[in-house]
Structure formats: structure tokens, C-alpha cells
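Worked Example 4.2. Consider the chain below.
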Amino acid sequence: MEKVMNNTAIWTEKYRPETFKEVKGQDEIVNRVSSFVEKKNMPHLMFAGPAGIGKTTLALVIAKQLFGESWRQNFLELNASDERGIDIIRHKVKDFARTRAIGDVPFKIIYLDECDALTKEAQQALRRTMENFTRTTRFILSCNYSSKIIDPIQSRCAVFRFKLLPKKDVFEIIEKIAAEENLKISDKAKEALYVISDGDCRRVENILQSCASISDNITEEVVFSLASVAKPKEVKEFLEMALENKFIEARKKMLDVMLNYGLSGLDVVKQIQKEIWKLEIDGRKKMDLVDKCGEIEFRMTEGSDEYIQLEALLSQVGLAGLKR
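Applying the procedure from the previous section yields the following C-alpha cells:
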């Protein structure tokens, strides 16, 4: 098997599950959905949750298990963030929905990815389409935020809320890919992949493929450098310097970390926020610092100079140390 694939076939597609048993981290949802498939009858479905945790994968598995070899003819996948207006519902969706399914399954499936990006007018048109073509079509709607979907659509769907993948399942995926691609991955590298991805399987696979293009032996250093994420211990190190009233050294260390890993100011704030909870200060000071992180992030998104804002945040850490 070729170890590093070309740009037209990334590992996210190569290792996409084909059966319900292969879908990781969503056991309860898989059990309920697979029972619909066994009975060849299901309601409209809504998959809600963060990116990279298996929503699209599960929709494809449903189609493949229902339709077999003819799944491509009976399954329409659209990304609503590409075409957000009412025309996508009036034309593409309606034209596909009004024809009967091929084979012995009584309905087709339309999968609308990122449907929380649809305009309100498009969602109203979708509601009517879901009503009118229930006999021939089932809809699977995927979104990051179900609150952005109008209530009439939510009430027509069985809503499933996906969760981030636990460490055990992420490690299983990493080990499977390592075995298939003849890679050697250290335990620290696995931990680093999990910390960086935070349960996002797509991010794990993309970072892993980037690492594999450099070396067969994947270490913690390779993972952090390619993911453009600083090692948590380095972030904690300059925060502890600030707590010990070594502000100049802490500032220099923070800037070195930013330059070495190519981080933006927002990236640094997010990593600082995670490491604050590990500092040896009382709970109230931790809450004050997290509050400051939110304020600094807001200032950056409004256009403030990120270096000045990061120094301001680091100074607050130093002040927290003086009050100990």
C-alpha cells in the first residue's frame, strides 16, 4: 500500500467507515439509526454537533447499508454553505425529491450538510419540501448549531446530538492508520494528536498524513510543529515565569513560542486559557484570568494589536502572582 497518498485522495476519505460497526464514538446514535435501516423505514434525521466527529460519515453509511450498490443514484449530498439561498431548495432538492428511488427501498435520501448556513427563507422552503415529498424522500440534515435551524424543521426530524470522540476511540483510529501505513507513532505523539484535535477525527487524520509525508517515525515534536500548536508545557512555562514576577523573561519566551510555531495572537490566547487551570493559584484568580482571556480575545477580533494585547494578558498573570 502506498504510504503517502497524492492530493486527490486524502486519508479522511481513505479511512472513512463503510459499516455501522466501524463508526467510532457515537454508539448510542449508531444503535438507534441502524435499527431504522434494518426496518427500511426512518424519519427525517438531524445530526448536530462539532466538526469532524462522524456526521457525514454516518449519513453515507446509512445510504450504503440501505441501497447497496445503487446508493449513489438514491443519495444526494449537498453542502448548504456553498449555496445558501432559496434556489438550492427550489431546484436541486425538489428535482431530486420528486422522483422515486431505484430498487426496493421506498425512499431516496437527501443529505444537507451545514444546513445551519441556509437563510431563513431557504429553511421555510425546505420545510414545505419535506412535507410534500415524504412519500419518496427522507432528509438528513447536518449542522454545527441546531439553534440556527427553525423550529418547524426541528419538529419534523429525529434530532441526534453527536459528541466529541473520546481518547480511547481516537487512539484506535491512530493505531489502525499506523498499521495500514507502516508508521511508528510514539505514545507522546498519540497524546499530542488527541490534545491538538480535541476529539476531531478529521483533524487527527489530516495532521497524521502531513507528519507521514515527512517521516515514518512520528514524534511529539513533529506533531506539534506541523499542527502549528505550541507544546502545553512551553505555554505553562512562560505563565509560571510571569507568576514569579519574571515578566521580561516570560514576555521573551512567549514571543519565541509564537515565532517558532507560527502562531497568531488568537491561537496563543486559546492555549493560555487552557493552561491557566493548571497553574498553582487559587480558584478566584483563575476565574479572573479566564475572564481577561475573553476580554483580550474580543479586543483582538475588533482589530487591536495582538502583541500589545498578549503583553497585557501576561501582565495580568504577573499581577495574579504578586497577590499570592
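The chain has three domains: 26-161, 167-227, 232-322. The domain at 26-161 is CATH 3.40.50.300 (Rossmann fold). Compare this with Example 4.1 before moving on.
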